[in-house]
Amino acid sequence: MGGIAGPRLVAAVAEAGGAGIVGLYKHPPQEIAALIAETAGLTGRAFGINLVPEVVSEAVLVDQVRAVLAAPAETPPFISFYGLPPRAAITPARDVGREVIVQIGSVFDAVEAVNRGATQLIIQGHEAGGHHLSRRPMADLVAALVERLPAVPVIAAGGISSGEAAAAAAAAGADAVLAGTAFICASESAAHDVYRAKVMAACSADTVVSDRFEIGWPGRPHRVLRNAVTEAAVPPEPAFIGRTVLFGRPYPVPRGSAAVPTIHSSGRIEEMALYCGTGCDAVTRIEPAAAIVARLATGFAAGRNASATDPTVTAAPVTPVTARAG
Ligand SMILES: Cc1cc2nc3c(=O)[nH]c(=O)nc-3n(C[C@H](O)[C@H](O)[C@H](O)COP(=O)(O)O)c2cc1C
């Protein structure tokens, strides 16, 4: 989660046995090196770096990948991409044996991602908070993907904030789960307090898939909490409504910006992009990331055990996964 999943949250997830992923955006190489160094200074365990191919040019993306690969770390980070990256961005990572996890929203893109070199897949259902790759429910996509690509580890994403939801993903055949919304209110998250309070108070019906927050990341619908911007009959004026800090520099936030409100943001937080998945029903308090990881892991294990003992459920083939998403 760009802006929210920084070194503190990622290290806390890693220390708890998950695999936290540092969310990046249009970060220059020196910022990437600094974030990896900071995270590696907080944990010696596996963590990942997330890049978003569609917000940068191919040349910049490849430079970002090279910056990740060049950064020294006790446990070199795996790379995760949001959406299909070009082969040129995957190959350098694969050439040095790095795990490459690609988040996609269809079986078609999953096959293409594997053809381009992805080692694991995150399949995102429409329940997900943040930007959307699919209009289909998570469980349907997982089942379709496990059937089509049985040898590739499949990580389920979308609406998984409780042990029960993690169990359902396991029952659908997932090898692991990825959660975003569940961690917005983690003690170590960098989300703004007003945003966190709204997520804790929200239920799934308070979320909506919108296209209103596309300044900085156009053309990709996103699930957010309903607010004055999503509910206006026409897109409101993109006037400046606040400030934030991006890459260490101040950034004025226009109404309609894709920037999520963080601890560095000020202004009309309630009108900003309050990304949130349908799993917000289960997010009701601030608690350490370790407690959230434990709940999801326990639920996932229970779902897997139930599938193994229920003859009506076809168990998915289990492939060793070297990096679990968090
Ligand atoms: C606040 C927020 C920010 C996100 N930012 C990113 C991002 O920068 N890169 C990315 O790959 N996915 C991002 N996502 C999407 C997640 O990868 C994932 O698909 C989603 O969180 C899963 O659904 P859930 O939020 O219901 O758990 C974000 C999600 C949220 C809620």
From TrEMBL:
Please tell me whether the keyword Oxidoreductase is annotated for this protein.
Answer: yes
Q: Which UniProt keywords apply?
A: Dioxygenase, Flavoprotein, FMN, Oxidoreductase, Plasmid
An annotated Gene Ontology molecular function: dioxygenase activity
Tell me where on the tree of life, at the top rank, the source sits. Answer: Bacteria
Pfam families hit by this protein: NMO
Sorted alphabetically, which InterPro entries does this protein's record hold?
Aldolase_TIM (IPR013785), NMO (IPR004136)
What name has this protein been given in UniProt? 2-nitropropane dioxygenase NPD
Upper lineage is: Bacteria, Pseudomonadati, Pseudomonadota, Alphaproteobacteria, Geminicoccales
